[in-house]
């Protein structure tokens, strides 16, 4: 039971991370294509300004919770996917320092350098996380000792790459909508119309991915066994569809919320299909890393559950407050503010 | 080189680089919070400018502190997966608790603090920086409880082929971890205090914004003195805890080869690890080492020869870094007293001000040396007495780790140079002009 609770919490942490940092990664990916001027770029940086750092902590916690609740899964995954994870790490570092460094010196080549870092540091994590999760859905080549038998390039199979593209598109639409929430005028219009265009691509890739998933993985098994779980994919699909309506109406906040719900739905759909496996083995199901053979002791799970039950609502409360307090549209005055990016 | 050595070098590089940024974060957040509180209490605009000025330096430093911390979390899995599997039940949970309890708070409110100078009441705004400062330091507490457990494992049982948590209270009240925490954060506060005083000194010598920097100086001088004095006592207590729980580390710190009662302390020693002896031992003070480590001049101090060769830490590194740390610690105490005596009129002591500028890098040196003593001195154990470092490493191709190690060094060097350049540039620039 404790293992199952932690599995659900594990999924929720990932979903929260994708929902929150997803829009930052999306905005960063869009920057070279959407920003026409230095001013546009500054609006884009400042649209993420007060939030991205707090968002990223959900990743740290998702990683930390894996380590704490399922140490064997943490060990197998991080050891096996060494190169991919270090690439992700370098990208996240590159993005993180951009915010701090970019505005600190004048000169266009200085700024271009950090813009490049920012783009790579946003696009690459979006892609890699998608590739990683799709590969996990399909099963990765781990042997009976939990040793990964593939290479970095064996992750870049068609299904893995499709997952990567899906994540990039989800985050790009999500980011464009957040940008619409935070801006006015021309940039607002362009952000909204970008979201509409990427939404179409996202829909197509999502359909192909889902079909591929049906063929390539056994994620659907749990859903056929426990039909009430179908509510999760239902939320994912319907939120993707209503998103369109809100976008066309110009209700960017509602569209963003629908997009957030969609990302959560997609993540939980994958996680729900995995249960009770954390890392399925593509070599032999007997080598699967599951919540039963990878979990911490009941005492550790209990203590951490206590901490999570107290702290996570508090975190959600103050982060929600920050979003409500600083989620308003940016003005010229905000950009002149000496601390602005 | 093999995977083990490369992974050790990579972890050493990653953690030492991380620790170039974290100490200043720990102390400067508190100093910034103090300046802002003084502004709230007195209405003196200089303190508001101080909070902004030191806060900006804090932020430049903060970014790298955070991103390099993520590396460490990753590396436990990527490079030390056998460790993660074996002790994750205890160690992993401490990291996870750190994130939920402190890291969210710190990372959320730093953004809020930066963007709300004109949006909330001064009192509320000061609260934000206090939240950041408290969260950073609580974060350090959990990390050092985790490290303290690696130094002196408690509250676990060996079950199911791994170390499982048995007594959570014992883990979080582990005396070793708490002493290590006090020792480390005091070091961080000293570093931050000297950083602030050094920057003030640079400006005071140039007669820039004299009133402003005098105010900053005065607070930093008191802050530094408190912790410089505290650190000397705390260091002693921490040292005797090491003597109790990690006899091999103590023996390496002092280069003691033979077990002896009434062990003297030599003022000058040159270790010769090859031949298991010291090539030079001069000026003995009888019984002092026994007294310092075990509170009695006749107490027995274990020598390295009492332990099998494969369970002894590298003596040279541990011994010399210990001396660098302790020597600098006393030096900081002395300079802190002088600075405090001149706190109201530092501009009248140009010699002291010059010294303070050159002192800025020394706490960095001391704090890194301290980590070498703590971590190298614990070898060959990754968890003292429980798991050896060589058994903790991941299954990887050495080419993989070699490439990542080179990539880390190159990328970190690049970022580090930029960061210190910016830190120096903005420190020299001084505060925004008064309105």
Structure description:
- The complex is a heterodimer of chains A (341) and B (435).
- With 341 residues, chain A is mainly α.
- Chain A has one domain.
- Chain A contains 14 helices and 2 strands; from the N terminus they run αααααααααααββααα.
- In chain A, strands 1-2 form a two-stranded antiparallel sheet.
- The longest helix of chain A has 33 residues.
- The mean pLDDT of chain A is 93.
- In chain B, the strands form 4 sheets. Chain B has a two-stranded antiparallel sheet.
- By secondary structure, chain B is mainly alpha-helical.
- Chain A: Keywords: Cell membrane, Electron transport, Heme, Iron, Membrane, Metal-binding, Transmembrane, Transmembrane helix, Transport.
- Chain A: It is found in: Cell membrane.
- Chain A: One of its GO terms (cellular component) is plasma membrane.
- Chain A: It comes from Dissulfuribacter thermophilus.
Secondary-structure blueprint of this entry?
The complex is a heterodimer of chains A (341) and B (435).
Chain A: H1 2-34, H2 38-48, H3 52-69, H4 71-80, H5 82-101, H6 108-138, H7 158-182, H8 185-216, H9 221-225, H10 231-249, H11 252-274, E1 277-279, E2 289-290, H12 291-294, H13 298-326, H14 332-336
Antiparallel strand pairs in A: 1-2
Helix pairs in contact in A: 1-2, 1-3, 1-6, 1-7, 1-11, 3-4, 5-6, 6-7, 7-8, 7-11, 8-10, 10-11
Chain B: H1 3-42, H2 45-78, H3 81-115, H4 122-151, E1 156-159, E2 162-165, H5 168-172, H6 175-205, H7 210-245, H8 247-254, E3 260-261, E4 265-272, E5 277-285, H9 288-294, E6 300-301, H10 315-341, H11 350-359, H12 361-376, E7 381-383, E8 387-388, H13 398-429
Antiparallel strand pairs in B: 1-2, 3-6, 4-5, 7-8
Total count of strands of chain A: 2
- Report the principal-axis shape of chain A: globular
Tally of helical segments of chain B:
13
Summing up helix and strand content along with how strands pair, one would put the structural category of chain A as mainly alpha
| Beta fraction of chain A | under 5%
Strand order of the largest sheet of chain A: 1-2
**C-alpha-based Rg of chain B, rounded:** 23 Å
**Rounded radius of gyration of chain A (Å):** 20 Å
């Amino acid at each position: 039971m404790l293992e199952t609770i932690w599995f659900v919490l594990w999924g929720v942490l990932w979903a929260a991370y994708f929902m929150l940092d997803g829009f930052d990664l999306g905005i960063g990916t869009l920057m070279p294509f959407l920003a026409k001027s230095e001013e546009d770029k500054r609006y884009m940086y400042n649209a993420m300004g007060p939030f991205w750092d707090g968002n990223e902590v959900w990743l740290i916690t998702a990683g930390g919770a894996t380590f704490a609740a399922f140490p064997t899964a943490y060990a197998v995954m991080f050891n096996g996917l060494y190169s991919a994870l270090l690439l992700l790490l370098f990208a996240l570092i590159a993005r993180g320092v951009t915010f701090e460094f970019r505005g600190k010196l004048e000169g266009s080549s200085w700024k271009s350098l950090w813009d490049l870092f920012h783009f790579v540091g946003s696009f690459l994590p979006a892609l890699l996380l998608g590739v990683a999760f799709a590969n996990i859905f399909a099963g990765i080549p781990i042997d009976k000792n939990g040793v990964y038998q593939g290479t970095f390039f064996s992750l870049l199979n068609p299904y893995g790459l499709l997952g990567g593209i899906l994540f990039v598109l989800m985050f790009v639409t999500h980011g464009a909508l957040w940008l619409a929430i935070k801006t006015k005028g021309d940039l607002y219009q362009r952000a909204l119309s970008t979201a509409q265009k990427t939404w179409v691509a996202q829909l197509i890739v999502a359909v192909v991915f889902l079909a591929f998933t049906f063929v390539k993985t056994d994620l659907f098994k749990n859903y056929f066994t426990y039909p009430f779980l179908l509510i999760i994919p239902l939320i994912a699909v319907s939120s993707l569809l209503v998103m369109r309506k809100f976008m066309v109406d110009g209700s960017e906040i509602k569209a963003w919320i629908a997009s957030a719900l969609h990302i959560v739905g997609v993540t939980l759909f994958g996680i729900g299909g995995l249960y009770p496996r954390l890392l399925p083995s593509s070599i032999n199901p007997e080598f699967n890393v599951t919540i039963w053979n990878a979990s911490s002791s009941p005492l550790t799970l209990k203590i951490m559950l206590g901490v999570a039950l107290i702290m996570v609502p508090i975190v959600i409360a103050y982060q929600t407050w920050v979003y409500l307090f600083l989620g308003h549209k940016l003005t010229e005055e905000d950009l002149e503010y000496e601390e602005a990016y | 080189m093999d995977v083990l050595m490369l992974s050790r070098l990579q972890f050493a590089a990653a953690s030492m680089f991380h620790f170039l940024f974290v100490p200043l974060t720990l102390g400067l957040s508190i100093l910034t919070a103090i300046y802002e509180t003084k502004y709230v209490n007195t209405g003196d605009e200089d303190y508001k400018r101080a909070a902004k000025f030191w806060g900006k330096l804090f932020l430049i430093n903060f970014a790298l502190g955070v991103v390099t911390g993520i590396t460490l979390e990753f590396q436990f899995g990527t490079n030390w997966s056998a460790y993660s599997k074996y002790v994750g039940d205890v160690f992993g949970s401490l990291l996870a608790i750190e994130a939920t309890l402190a890291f969210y708070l710190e990372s959320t409110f730093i953004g809020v603090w930066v963007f709300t100078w004109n949006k909330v009441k001064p009192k509320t705004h000061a609260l934000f920086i206090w939240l950041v400062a408290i969260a950073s330091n609580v974060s350090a507490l959990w990390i050092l409880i985790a490290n303290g457990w690696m130094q002196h494992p408690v509250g676990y049982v060996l079950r199911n082929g791994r170390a499982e948590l048995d007594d959570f209270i014992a883990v979080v009240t582990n005396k070793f971890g708490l002493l290590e925490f006090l020792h480390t954060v005091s070091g961080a506060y000293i570093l931050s205090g000297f950083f602030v005083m050094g920057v003030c000194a640079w400006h005071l010598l140039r007669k820039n914004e004299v009133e402003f920097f005098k105010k900053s100086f005065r607070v930093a001088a008191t802050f530094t003195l408190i912790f410089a004095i505290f650190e000397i006592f705390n260091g002693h207590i921490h040292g005797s805890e090491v003597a109790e729980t990690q006899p091999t580390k103590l023996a390496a710190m002092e280069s003691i080869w033979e077990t002896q009662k009434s062990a003297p302390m030599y003022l000058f020693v040159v270790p010769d690890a090859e031949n298991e002896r010291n090539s030079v031992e001069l000026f003995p003070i009888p019984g002092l080492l026994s007294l310092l480590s075990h509170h009695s001049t006749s107490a027995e101090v274990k020598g390295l020869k009492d332990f099998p060769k494969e369970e002894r830490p590298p003596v040279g590194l541990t011994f010399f870094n210990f001396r660098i740390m302790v020597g600098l610690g006393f030096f900081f105490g002395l300079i802190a007293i002088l600075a405090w005596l001149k706190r109201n009129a530092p501009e009248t002591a140009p010699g002291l001000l010059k010294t303070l500028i050159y002192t800025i890098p020394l706490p960095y040196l001391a704090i890194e040396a301290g980590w070498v003593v703590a971590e190298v001195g614990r070898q060959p154990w990754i968890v003292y007495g429980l798991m050896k470092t060589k058994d903790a490493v991941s299954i990887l191709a050495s080419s993989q780790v070699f490439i990542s190690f080179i990539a880390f060094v190159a990328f970190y060097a690049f970022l580090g140079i930029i960061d210190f350049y910016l830190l120096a540039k903005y420190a020299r620039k001084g505060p925004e002009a008064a309105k």
